[in-house]
Amino acid sequence: MKSIGTTFITLALVMGLAAHGRDRLDDWVAQTKLPPVLSEVAVEVRARDGAMLRAFPVEEGRMRLAVQLEQVDPDFVAQLIRYEDHRFYSHTGVDFVAMMRAAAQAAWHGQVVSGGSTLTMQVARLLENSGTGSVTGKLRQMRVAWALERRLSKEDILSLYLHHAPYGGAVEGIRAASWAWFEKEPYRLTEPEAALLIALPQAPEARRPDRHPVAAFAARERVMKRLDMGATDRQPDIPRKMRSIPQDAPHLAAMLRSKAPTALRHDTTIDANLQRQIQALALRAVAQQPKGVSTAILIADHTTGEILAHVGSPAYSAAGGALGFVDMTSAIRSPGSTLKPLIYGLAFDEGLVHPDTLINDAPVSFGTYAPQNFDGEFRGMLTVRDALGLSLNIPPVLLTHEMGVARLMAGLRRAGVDAKLPSGQAGLAVALGGAGMTLRDLVQLYAGIAQGGRAQTLHEQPLAAPPSPPRQIISDVAAWQVTDILADILPPRGTAAAAGQVAYKTGTSYGHRDAWAIGYDGRHVVGVWLGRPDGTPVPGAFGGDLAAPILFEALGRIGHTREALPLPPSDTIILGTASLPEPLRIFQPRDAVFAKERHSPVVTFPPDGATLRRSGYGVPLKLREGVLPLTVLVNGAPVLTQLRERNAVLSLDVAGFNEISVIDAKGRSASVEIRLD
């Protein structure tokens, strides 16, 4: 009886000591201070189809992409557990059986044959960035592993491993590794690819395929053999290059990140394939340009307002002195002649002119402001259609003066354009580019014209709600008339497009600082800017020579989704000059008939001694002062009598010298001599 009692006492003592030790171990584990278990992951910018556009590195430049278990091939997860820790779902963080096996194998072979660390212990090491060579380091990993198992689920621990496992260089996590080595998401891995990614974390630098292909190949084969993945002698070669995670649309990505700095994912309307093509186009476009020249290209679907491609500069760097970090789609620049289509559209709606109205391209001044054509020449009387097609400066200034600059500014506001005025006041110079705008502003303006005059708001992210009803910038008839004129402008030489397929306009700002081309077809609108970001001139840079070819090449990249320009609205008046109503045949200021007559008549155009080109439309005659009615003689013969206006067109089209005389109702006269050639 005594021996039995002693045995019970001894057993009770052992159990008590074990319980005490267990309690102490529990307390020790419970008091473990865990490292942060929330993984910092890259902010991702996605294309319209979900494809990766850009990812921003995390701390120390590491590339770690967010991943959910369902985004990883289930076979990969199962193979990883079988190879690394087949008792993962049964142990509590430390597998003593595996540790003893590893120790015995090391003693027998004289070197480490297999590791004893569980996936949980590896997670502990990765979270703390600790080594495995010391006893204290291993004890710390065991303690953290036990604590992790108590506080997290097995799925959480597995997720941490899939986020932090190293795969060479700055690549961490299965998703970043799958992109870096195979350019694909991890749910599409093949068996050989999965085997390599199982083997790499054990020695990520020693087995890097691009630097140590033999070691990488051998490690992959060991994994495949152990997991019975298939005949290794027929497997494809390992990758010899680490691919870059996509870094497309950098300016747009940076803008979205700054607008929502806490968001981990930004979905966009960008077409990933088109974006890459336009980025390559921008690089080629500036390759032959002087140092410091940059370009920006914006493509949108004007039927929806979705931006499909956004290139703020050819390269997101300071290479070549071009300030590539500056997004030139949002830089404020002078628009040059690109506002002229809006001016003519507004004038059509005002009833001031029709596309076939004759308008006088002649010297004119408004106080101290005397606009000139780009080439310094004047064409005389010509149609509005030709004036816009030739991008002459005098006619749009005349029209802006007649309808008022406020009307032009209101049209810009309806289009969603916030024009910046250097002096704070809008003057006639706005018509020729005397206001600051962005490439995005101009693309949005032309998108509205392309949409039948209805304002279209551009957006680079999917809309959360249907947009508000659009405002009317100009009427659908005026929009079609503008489009019809712009579509008649011949495409640049060497482009595949034919006349009539694309409506476009070019522009060049003062001093050759900005070269523009904006155009559209039935669905897409494209804007191109070329110049120097610092605003210094680019000698010889014209929108028609430099920006227009880029525009047409960009449109060509869109492919089969291109659509034809619209047909005219049913109420469009399509008539030649001679068939137009009398007030629309020749443009003249509304107050011309009501000018006060106090002095002898003065011929303001043509000037005495001028040499004019024959246009086929005759010679415009502009008069000032004198008492109505007037009589006009050419070479002594009366050609106009009882003239009650101070503007007329003389039927002169024969080369040589001609004397033009004007006599008012009081017999006072004036004359000039001109030459036609």
UniProtKB/TrEMBL annotation:
**EC number(s) on file:** 2.4.99.28
CC annotations in GO: outer membrane-bounded periplasmic space
Q: Which residues form a coiled coil?
A: none
Q: Where is the Penicillin-binding protein transpeptidase domain?
A: 296-520
Q: Has UniProt tagged this entry with the keyword Hydrolase?
A: yes
Similarity field? In the C-terminal section; belongs to the transpeptidase family. In the N-terminal section; belongs to the glycosyltransferase 51 family.
| The protein's name in its UniProt record | peptidoglycan glycosyltransferase
